[in-house]
Amino acid sequence: MIYDSLIHYIQERSQSTLMPSDIALIREAFVYKKLRKRQFFLQEGDICKHFGFIVKGAMRQYTVDQKGSEHTIQLYIENWWASDRESFWKETPSIYAIEAWEETDLLLLPKANGSYERVNAIPAFNEMRIKLDDNNSIASQRRLRASMFDTAEKRYEELTLRYPEFIQRFPQHIIASYLGITKETLSRIRNQSAKK
Amino acid sequence: MIYDSLIHYIQERSQSTLMPSDIALIREAFVYKKLRKRQFFLQEGDICKHFGFIVKGAMRQYTVDQKGSEHTIQLYIENWWASDRESFWKETPSIYAIEAWEETDLLLLPKANGSYERVNAIPAFNEMRIKLDDNNSIASQRRLRASMFDTAEKRYEELTLRYPEFIQRFPQHIIASYLGITKETLSRIRNQSAKK
DNA sequence: AACGGAAGTTGACATAGATCAACGTTTTTT
DNA sequence: AAAAAACGTTGATCTATGTCAACTTCCGTT
To answer: Does B188 share its domain with B164?
Structure first.
């Protein structure tokens, strides 16, 4: 069953135990949705109305600048939470798009109709969420530091170590834009390292 | 009283009301500490044992690389929370230093002796914390995007708009390193803009 | 007030990575 | 299977920003 992976995910990341009533609430609150390749979870200009848990698949979040180049902000695979927090919280139009890169199974937690609050009130969920936020904050600080102070080559190497899945599942030009470099530069970096 | 500013801060950022017992707990859990200019809240290699709420003052968080140059990761002023989350959570030695840039009044929430858990169990505090985490996550995503895709000049302009206080209270070379550029480049950017 | 150190400026030069353009390869669509 | 689109590579050149070094200005300490 599709909900099992979410329930397992929550349980694994908290001390508290999920009660049967909690599980019932989760099944009720989260809505299943399947996206085909290249379908959008969120389009630029729309308000992000869900937190999405990825059961299976891969997605990417990006913006397009005035010149028409895409900048990849985040990549997502199984067991990641996809959302534009700013748009979700402030209910403002998003500047990002989030697109399924592979066929993707999602469980959507809507902001509307109190689902979000009721789920957050589950102790195990709240614990998991605090840990998730901490890890996000640690990861984005790391990524920021790297983007400001490390070379493109070092950032690529670190990515291959930390998230090897990304490299296998997304094409090079997307990896490049996630690293904040051009596809040409990434191609050269890869040729360089290959020679070593 | 020094605790009032913290209590006011929490109350302002939550729906729930702080009960007298909550306030008593906060006064008990948070420890007051004054740092003089250039004193450290955290030194590189130490484990970060507190979340620090800044009542008054200004601090900065930085690393020193192999070449001896300092990279400023974060600046803090009144009503900001200072901490190295990674070190705090994982209880690993920090790669950062956090230093008082002005004389600073802090309220420290220790990780030890259950203070942290008890305070987090206060509903108003938990709500405030969720909002704080969301805002941090939004801010660091914004900063990451800017560092990867905007020019130094644009990043400086945005900083002057978003956090004008930083520019007034920290010297230029620290602002430069917060922006991920050298002091020479920042100096040139400022001269450029002045001419316009 | 005068000294010493920290902060900021300016110029000459170096370099990582971007841009542009052409071409090769792989994948998708028909 | 052919055509089209997406993806990746390579070379030439350009540009924003870094590096190094000399100099000036400001500020805190005595």
So the answer is: yes
